[in-house]
Amino acid sequence: MKIKAAVLNTIGAKTPYAESRPLVIEELELAGPGHGEVLVRIGAAGLCHSDLSVINGDRPRPMPMALGHEAAGVVEDVGAGVDDLTEGDHVVVVFVPSCGHCAPCAEGRPALCEPGAAANGAGTLLSGERRLTRGGKPINHHLGCSVFAEYATVSRRSCVKIDPELPLNEAALFGCAVLTGVGAVVNTAQVRAGASVAVIGLGGVGLASLLGAVASGARHIIAVDLSAAKLHLAKSLGATHVFNAGEVGCHENIRELTSGGVEYAFEMAGSVRALDLAYRITRRGGTTVTAGLPPPTATFALPPVNLVAEERTLKGSYIGTCVPSRDIPRYIDLYRQGRLPVNRLMSGTLELDDINAGFDLLHEGKAVRQVIAF
What we know:
It contains 13 helices and 18 strands. The strands form 3 sheets. Strands 3, 5, 6, 9, 10, 17 and 18 form a 7-stranded mixed beta sheet that branches. The chain has a 6-stranded parallel beta sheet with strand order 13-12-11-14-15-16, sandwiched between helices. Helix 7 links the parallel strand 11 and strand 12. Helix 6 crosses helix 7 and helix 6 crosses helix 12.
């Protein structure tokens, strides 16, 4: 079938993207689902920093590539071997397919699926196939999803069935921002009620982790960013204190407020400077969690004596250490109970043709989560 999709042909375009137009809306050929795959009509797709990091070259991927990895939609067709989804089912797309058989999957850690990671790096679906072509030549898939498009063929292992009553523009956020942010708090760090928490970087993932800290019953919830507007939003979402990361003495002021630092600090900005700040404001015996994905060449100078003498923990978190089939329904239930107001993270709705301008807003820090509605 012929579809419209946003295709990135080369990385490293100059800003503003509304002028350089790195993403081109093109007509592609989309093959139907093969064995273990499904065809999804995309209802909504969110713009994420992980997409931006491919556009600007921070996260190199094989080109050309149809971008987009955070979405929700409706199943249109299923391939052979798929017997638990049917036409009309609503699904959230997840950007790491889990094979169910490798060592991490067998240990209950599907976010670290080895075949899934290999397929994502190669620009294929979990099967190793590419279902998108342009003029007979293959187009790479972004993280097995490629959802900045009217339709997507994805692995059955890349989607989770959800309640059809949840609007698709809200459901889309659960595939990345909510899984990554809330999961980092409740799964990776396992924050306890009454704990002290700081979140550095208030994009969609960072604010989702703040919501996770609120839902977990944290006592101190400190939000840190360079944007006054985002700090104001964080305060309205439940942050007990806010700090501008650009102010002199920021980390000393946080340590003073918390009598030596927070028990859990979350770096969600994808910046080594943000990670350094997160580590500095973590107390003795505390845990620093990073989920921000800086460029692969970035390094962080860690003082080993401090790590040992203070029994500090530094942990990475990928997709919130999630089990998507378990966590997405749980987080949706919390949202519908009013305990996880994910809808407040939405900055606006875009048309597919406006996608480059949307990434300008994301690059400039003027948007939290924009959603393309199909």
